């Protein structure tokens, strides 16, 4: 079972997220500074309005007149020019912080996505067997995009609210300390309400992320299996299943929306109390002469500028909760323990002779009975050995263990006398070429698929590998030759064509060890003959392990091993095994219809 590291108390989602910003400290400070300056200039117009009202009411005795400008037109002209400057600077800093925050969001989500995908690549196959591709795609794409949306606007909104509270609150206490409390009282109530809503929303958005993961899984599976859906005419059935998953996602979102939508209307009522108090009490003070009309104007405008932006806290917390639900899933993925770790011993390909030894190995898939039991096998360097047996006997499992796609439970596997656990994992797998029965071709050109794993290969080398694999003829008949796009999973090619491209890919890699896992299981006799000819060429002077159902393809192997229920029960050359008249001989008779004849 895949285990997980327990997150430390300090490893909460938000703090973990901030760790990704360490290398962007300069950009963060620039963004914060621009956000603060933008808000400072944004808060200046009420002061300008108050000064203008003061000019109209007080005329030559206004605040502006104290700076030596007694002419009313001159005073208003100064205020107009000052307004233009403030608006210009506000716009400049808004442009600056928008670019800085959005680019920072792109950089952070880019880093997290690469880290998460890199971690996923390092996980063992058992992890993927227990999870759907769609669920992983939901984390790597949709969840990280949710994080990006929060960073785009959320951080700036928080800075603006804090800056507004400090500047406006300070102005209130300076201008009218006796009524400032009316504007300040709603703030802690609003903050408390925001925190409370955050706690109520968290489980709802966690449910939303879970539902969208299930929906993405359904879509990914259906698109991958579209041929099966069409052939079994289950389109209506799949639409109904998709409708159920999509409806579950919609309903979970509606539950969250029902709560988040109530935030702003409730906050508005609290804001109304503070605004009304300033409007009434301040108005009475201004009418009685205890408060200057200009100051009263400033207070009314500042009250609105202080309290109304707090309504956006609802949207900010909504983004925050969505992002935290997503980042929790991403961090859970990053916390997934890697059970197969690389060794420290480097091994150059040129130094690999290809001697493989398996000593008393036992292996079982998760919570199952062992499929390989105390198996020992020695493969001399440069020799070709074959492994045959019934389906489920453990043949392909041996290949996965040799590549360390799974870890053995007990025993020891060595390559040229070195325990493969001690070898750098990249070096180990680079030295082994695998041609599987389940050929996977990427959506790209024939050339790209043959050179996959050998990015520096020239076209001449690619053509040479294709020629040895007897793929050159059919490739030249394709519409664009080597530049023909093969489609997702190579769906534009036949099974035999995909097999030959896979063989060409292995030839180009030129590994010291070649593994052929049912390489001719899904092709016709003519294609099998062509593949057999190419395999005869590429198995020269390299260790080759051939796993096959079709015994005709491995009859010339140096040694053939017969597996049954995870153990080797027969070994020998083709002729020796036929002479034993055991399981191998019986399999030969079933496949050929011939009686056993020993040459």
UniProtKB/TrEMBL annotation:
Query: GO molecular function: any one?
Result: ATP hydrolysis activity
Q: Which domain of life is it from?
A: Bacteria
PROSITE patterns named among the record's database cross-references: ABC_TM1F, ABC_TRANSPORTER_1, ABC_TRANSPORTER_2
**Entry keyword set:** ATP-binding, Membrane, Nucleotide-binding, Transmembrane, Transmembrane helix, Transport
Q: Which SMART domains match?
A: AAA
Q: Where is the ABC transmembrane type-1 domain?
A: 29-322
Signal peptide residue numbers: none
List residues traversing the bilayer.
72-93, 158-175, 181-201, 256-281, 287-308
Tell me which stretches of the chain form a coiled coil.
Answer: none
Keyword RNA-binding listed? The answer is no
Chief localization: membrane
- Keyword Transmembrane helix (UniProt): yes
Topology relative to the lipid bilayer, per the entry, is:
Multi-pass membrane protein
Q: Which InterPro entries match?
A: AAA+_ATPase (IPR003593), ABC1_TM_dom (IPR011527), ABC1_TM_sf (IPR036640), ABC_transporter-like_ATP-bd (IPR003439), ABC_transporter-like_CS (IPR017871), P-loop_NTPase (IPR027417), Type_1_exporter (IPR039421)
* Family annotation (Gene3D superfamilies): ABC transporter type 1, transmembrane domain (1.20.1560.10), P-loop containing nucleotide triphosphate hydrolases (3.40.50.300)
| GO CC terms | plasma membrane
Report the residue ranges that make up the ABC transporter domain in this protein.
356-590
Query: Which compartments does it reside in?
Result: Cell membrane
* Name of the protein described by the UniProt record: ABC transporter ATP-binding protein
**Source organism of this protein record:** Waterburya agarophytonicola KI4
